[in-house]
Amino acid sequence: EYNSVDIRPLPPRHRPRKFKVGDLVEAYYRFGWFEGEIVEELHNGNYICQLKSSKRLELVVERLRLQRSWRDGEWIPPLDESELAVEEEDSTDETKQTDSNKAGIMESEADSAESSTAGTGNIQEASGQVTIEEEEFSEGERVEVANIDEDGFNQAWLAATIVKPVENNRYIIRYETLRTGNDTGFLVKEMDSLHIRPPPPDIPVPHQFKMFDNVDALYKGGWWKGIITRVLPRGSRYKVHFDNNGKVMEFKHSDLRLHLDWIDRKWTKPSP
Predict the structure, then answer these.
(1) Residues in a beta bridge with 38
(2) Rounded CA gap, 122 and 89, in Å?
(3) How many whole angstroms separate alpha carbon 235 and alpha carbon 92?
(4) pLDDT of residue 4
(5) Could you give the domains of the chain?
(6) Cα(first)–Cα(last) distance of the chain, in Å?
(7) What integer pLDDT is reported at residue 102 of this predicted model?
(8) Integer Cα distance of 252 and 127 in angstroms
(9) Could you tell me the CA-to-CA distances from 185 to 14, 205, 249 in Å, in that order?
(10) By the 8 A CB rule, do 250 and 238 touch?
């Protein structure tokens, strides 16, 4: 049961449009529209949208729309006529859409804004409750995957995108930095969910890292765990000792991030 203040009409059908970084949008994801922000425009015409949960999705333009609020019987910001979809060739569907709107088909605000129940796999329907088993990660979702060595140890975390889920909690992923041997595209691989995680939240370090900070260093296309062993005097540069191989290398500030551990689906700072 919904309160009337949480119900609004279906937004008018609109033409696909060009978005820019910083646009506040609604993204169609897991059977509903979720609020987010455009953080990157890709060369293939798709967009990277960051949801309020920090999930980052690569989406085609047809799965995006500008955020609008329903206030006092009007859409804010209002839709310009040039934004409205034109369906001259399919007047039957247009008539059906108009009739549906007149009949009072409404859309819940709970489906347009991300809530604490999003991603649980429970979908409410008029006839009752239907439970859908959802995958831990979704098609198009940006993730990081473990780079496992011959001895089974994780060497680094590499950026990737979920291509599709397969059986037994496994996924087809496409790397964002590793290319195929013949350099025809980015490497595609099947991975177990135990070796996949969401990208960590961006924790800004406004000035500089400190001695003994636990960090990840961007090296050979992946994020390698290490510790700051020296803050260099010539600007924002640091010596980093890698945990896995004992090497010490020099990095600039922009190639480092604070290290976080993904434990029980939560990000935690490592113990000092």
Answers:
(1) 49
(2) 37
(3) 66
(4) 61
(5) 7-105 (2.30.30.140), 142-197 (no CATH), 214-268 (2.30.30)
(6) 48
(7) 36
(8) 58
(9) 34, 34, 30
(10) yes
Output the six-digit token pair for 114: 């991300």
For position 198, what pLDDT does the model report?
92
Secondary structure of 124-161 in the HEC alphabet? EECCEEEECCCCCCCCCEEEEEEEECCCCCEEEEEEEE
Report CA-CA distances (Å) from 78 to 27, 66, 84, 87.
19, 11, 11, 20
Contacts of 215 (CB under 8 A, 6+ apart): 209, 225, 226, 227, 228, 240, 256, 257, 258, 259
Instruction: Say if residues 97 and 13 touch (Cβ distance below 8 Å).
Output: yes
The residues that bridge with 241 in the sheet, in sequence order, are 227, 248
Over the chain (272 residues), what is each successive 10-residue block's mean pLDDT?
69 81 88 87 89 82 88 81 54 42 38 36 30 64 88 83 90 93 90 91 82 93 94 88 89 93 85 70
| Residue 94 identity (one-letter amino acid) | E
DSSP β-bridge partners for residue 37 = 24, 50
Nearest to 162, CA basis, from 191, 130, 194: 191
Tell me the three state secondary structure of residue 229.
strand
| Token couple for 182 | 């013949």
Classify residue 235 by its DSSP letter: S
Unique residue bearing structure tokens 């994801």: 29
C-alpha pair distances (Å), 86 with each of 42, 81, 113: 27, 10, 27
